[in-house]
Design a protein that fits this description.
The protein has helices at residues 9-17, 34-47, 60-67, 70-85, and strands at residues 52-53, 92-93. It is mainly alpha-helical and 94 residues long. It is globular.
Length: 94
């Protein structure tokens, strides 16, 4: 993995789902490396010309969005894709 990131068993488990359409959710205690693992995979996918969407649940806007249900989240994904196409990259990285 990255230079400062030790490969973890969970990374192999996550990698199994990358070629699928599944949404991957990682949760755990603070300061255990969740963001580092996600950043690693996001950079890996971007390097493969894949689109990624990172949602930080410490941002209350995303928590409120997810609390409104799956349909609202899917609508947001569609909106985020549209905004990316329009040039607003605030939530997408590529």
């Amino acid at each position: 993995m990255g230079t400062n990131l030790f490969k973890r068993q969970i990374a192999d488990e996550i990698a199994r789902y990358l070629p699928t359409a599944d949404i991957i959710v990682i949760h755990g205690a603070r300061q255990v490396g969740k963001t580092s693992i996600l950043s690693y995979f996001q950079n890996l996918l971007i390097g493969q010309s894949e689109q990624t969407l990172y949602i930080d649940l410490e941002d209350s806007r995303f928590v409120a969005l997810l609390n409104r249900g799956v349909d609202e989240f899917l609508n947001y994904r569609t909106y985020a894709r549209h905004m990316r196409t329009a040039g607003d990259l605030s939530c997408w990285r590529k």
